[in-house]
Amino acid sequence: MRTRHLVALLAIIFSLLITPAGAQTVTRTQHRAAIAKDAVTTGTMTIRKPDYISITTDQGREQLIMDGTKFTITLGGKQHTTDSRKNAQFATFHAVLTAVVNGQPIPQSDETKVTTKGGSTVITVTPAGKKKRQLFTSFVLTVNARTKAFSTLRMNGRGEDYITYEFK
């Protein structure tokens, strides 16, 4: 599975974990520097504690599912899977998502930076190691500091490419 796809899946899962029972509306924006217009789709996010998140956009064509340590992402009709126990890029991201969804403290590591601005907590995960095949260079999750609800998840790719999920 491509790293970019896994990261997108984890982002969706992370945002689902913070949401209360039921579905939450999500807007996904994919920016590619080589393409003039961003691709914007909408969908839903579902979270079931302790560690299940499902984000579905573009009428089900694009999905990101975190079920325990297993991440499944469907992009452009292709399904990719990985396990955070075997994929170092997703291990820290999985730990952060699980902590946020379950209302636990964010695990501290060299790969994680937590800052608070106004009413928001910003959690930045920068995976260790700079591998050529790494799909995303960092993940930035913004959480409402009072309600602990996800606000945005941005997955930064190589160059100026990124995917942003906005939760409502």
The best one-word shape is globular
Class derived from helix and strand content: alpha+beta
Beta-strand portion reads over 45%
How large is the count of helical segments?
2
- Alpha carbon gyration radius: 14 Å
Mean pLDDT: 82
Any low-confidence stretches, pLDDT <50, length ≥5? 15-21
- Summarize the biggest pleated sheet: 11 strands, antiparallel
> Helicity range of the residues?
10-25%
Write the element-wise H/E pattern from the N-terminal end onward: HEEEEEEHEEEEE
- Report how far apart the termini are: 29 Å
Q: How many strands in all?
A: 11
If strands are numbered along the chain, what order do they take across the biggest sheet? 6-5-4-3-2-1-11-10-9-8-7
Descriptive report:
The structure is a single chain. The chain is built from 2 helices and 11 strands. The protein has helices spanning 3-18, 88-101, and strands at residues 23-31, 39-48, 52-57, 62-67, 70-75, 78-83, 112-117, 120-125, 136-144, 150-157, 162-167. An 11-stranded antiparallel sheet has the order 6-5-4-3-2-1-11-10-9-8-7, with helices on one face. Helix 1 (3-18) packs parallel to helix 2 (88-101). The N and C termini lie far apart (29 Å). The model is unreliable at 15-21 (pLDDT under 50).
